[in-house]
Amino acid sequence: MTGEERREKIVALLGAADGALSGGDLAQELGVSRQVIVQDIALIRREGVEIDSTHRGYVLSRRDVPRRAFKVRHREDQVQEELDLIVDLGGTVEDVVVNHRTYGVISVPLNVSSRRDVARYLADIATSKSTPLSRITSGYHFHHVTAASEEILDEVAAALKEHGFLVERLPYEVSSDLN
């Protein structure tokens, strides 16, 4: 297989994946080293294909689908309920963002699109010394959510509101870079 064919296969694998694919997984699938995959990803990006890197691996960017920022607040023991609610309705939680008065806007990619992704994320938190990012802002945080349609995003908003998670934005947050 040529390098060009391998890069086409990487894009196809990422497009067909339910979640992130690690460099190691791609390397094993294609019979090359992880370093070759890293170099291929750089070349693919140079060709204009938008690939996001997450702590779990690579995903094709979802910038071409409907996207909305939701401001939410909940207790730490409600993280699973919030994320399950979003993915069950067909949303993908791209990231978690906090707007800290001292540190500014902090954003971390999540790319959670299934209950399996939610379980992995919660396991990562539980097995590390880390805590949810929203802890530094008393539970207030934002999620950018993508979905196949605006109607799904409307359903996500309604469900978050119904469960008491959705919070109104402050005036300075409405026109900020959190959108």
Automatic annotation (TrEMBL):
<dbReference type="InterPro" id="IPR013196">
    <property type="entry name" value="HTH_11"/>
</dbReference>
<dbReference type="Pfam" id="PF02829">
    <property type="entry name" value="3H"/>
</dbReference>
<dbReference type="GO" id="GO:0046872">
    <property type="term" value="F:metal ion binding"/>
</dbReference>
<keyword id="KW-0533">Nickel</keyword>
<dbReference type="InterPro" id="IPR004173">
    <property type="entry name" value="3H_domain"/>
</dbReference>
<dbReference type="InterPro" id="IPR035922">
    <property type="entry name" value="3H_dom_sf"/>
</dbReference>
<keyword id="KW-0479">Metal-binding</keyword>
<dbReference type="Pfam" id="PF08279">
    <property type="entry name" value="HTH_11"/>
</dbReference>
<feature type="binding site">
    <location>
        <position position="82"/>
    </location>
    <ligand>
        <name>Ni(2+)</name>
    </ligand>
</feature>
<dbReference type="InterPro" id="IPR036390">
    <property type="entry name" value="WH_DNA-bd_sf"/>
</dbReference>
<feature type="domain" description="Helix-turn-helix type 11">
    <location>
        <begin position="6"/>
        <end position="58"/>
    </location>
</feature>
<protein>
    <recommendedName>
        <fullName>Transcription repressor NadR</fullName>
    </recommendedName>
</protein>
<feature type="binding site">
    <location>
        <position position="141"/>
    </location>
    <ligand>
        <name>Ni(2+)</name>
    </ligand>
</feature>
<dbReference type="InterPro" id="IPR036388">
    <property type="entry name" value="WH-like_DNA-bd_sf"/>
</dbReference>
<feature type="domain" description="3H">
    <location>
        <begin position="71"/>
        <end position="166"/>
    </location>
</feature>
<dbReference type="InterPro" id="IPR026043">
    <property type="entry name" value="NadR"/>
</dbReference>
<feature type="binding site">
    <location>
        <position position="143"/>
    </location>
    <ligand>
        <name>Ni(2+)</name>
    </ligand>
</feature>
<feature type="binding site">
    <location>
        <position position="74"/>
    </location>
    <ligand>
        <name>Ni(2+)</name>
    </ligand>
</feature>
